[in-house]
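Input chain follows. Return structure tokens only.
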Amino acid sequence: MGGVFGPATEVANAATASEDDVSSTLKTFSKVYSALEDNAASKVDPDKAIYNGAIPGMLRTLDPHSNFFDPRTFALLKEDQRGHYYGVGMSVGPKNNRTQVLEPFTGSPAYKAGIRRGDIIAEVNDKKTDGLTTSEVADLLKGPRGTPVQLKIERQGVERPLPFNLIRDEISRKSVGDGFWLKPGIAYLDVNSFNENTSHEMEDELKKLGEQNIRGLVLDLRGNPGGLLNEGVEVAGHFLKKGEVVVKHRGRSTPERPYQARRGGGAGKDYPIVVVVDRSSASAAEIVAGALQDHDRGWVLGENTFGKGLVQTVFPMSENTGLALTTAHYYTPSGRLIQRDYSNISFVEYYYHKNLETKNTADVKMTDSGRTVYGGGGISPDEKFAPPKYDKFQIELLRKGIFFNFAPKFFAARGNDGKLPQGWVPDNETLNDLHKFALDNKAEFTEGEWAEHNDWIKQALRQELYITAFSKEASDRVGIENDPTVLKAIEAMPKAKQLLESAKKMIVQRTEQLNGR
């Protein structure tokens, strides 16, 4: 009898002791909060004290990614996951305590009405925006589908504010950019996040290209912060065989669970892939890169990825708040841990990528064909490549916003029609105007530096002006076609092809050996 009931009694006593500790701690917290309310020099804002202080502080004792969402940030999180919201369709940013348009989204009410990058939002529904934060202005622009909103826009070269009467609509935020051909047979696809629509968007882009015509794919995951696990599994599964493991996770209170490719790549989907990553590729992006690497399906090029391999379960809380709590760890198909160590560095150092190059020599695994890979530090690329860093001259022009601020002046001088002919490149007269504009705006450089960077200046200005004249997508394409990392990916495509062929041979040999037994 004692052998059965003894341990149970100990558990009950431990639980009671734990509950007493929690109760005591909560009482202490209440006393501290009351003391703050009664005696603090400034009035205590309950939301800031609890939502931005006490709860996040508690979560930071656990890990870098457990997080609490107040009502606004929780709503934004759900928007990101759904991939759409209702509004006028543009991103905004601060400029001299005012709100400026950074980009009207292609096809949105703002884009169709002619609102441009660089415009200043002076009023929304007769409410002046001076003194409002960009978040507050963004909230004014959102609203139910089909409702009207009036904006007054200040534009360089136009004397009076321009009125724009818009009707709010559903704004889709694509997580997959338009696919296109880098050269005959070599396709490019950028996946910038993982929301509810990512796998369908990728399938659509591959269909538009004609997947059967692809002889090599550059899959760009740079800057991708991750998102929904299931969508990462679906994206990786498109290129893997049915039943192959994409990722596994396990935690303190959860058994190991594998996620497998549901459909798998069929005929016409066995082309070589170069997966491009950088230090900002995280979470679901690392799951995709790790799965394709472990199964020798893709040649990974770039920098060590971020190393976020913590499973976040989001719990809706009261008052429209939410809690993202780490409940497990992600492991690649070979069993290597994705999460980077954060135990001996500050969270600031962790987020600023201070230990990206470390690898855990105790976590050594093999890919399907027997290549060595390491865990515990994100995904280490098969071929490391870091794009050239901006030099002093480039940083100076970008920091001063020379290209961004020159664009409204350029279009104002052309009659403010915002148009350019297809294939436009800056001529000498435009470059001279830009040179004078840079000097007038106190940019510091020598004439030798200007001449040395002539090609880069043309490229940067062309990209900036294409956003207004055509679209952000057109601008991005110009940049991608001249991107050193993408050019390196094209160059690496034969390595991806060789990897794929070697893996196929290895699988045939193993199958024959098994059958021979």
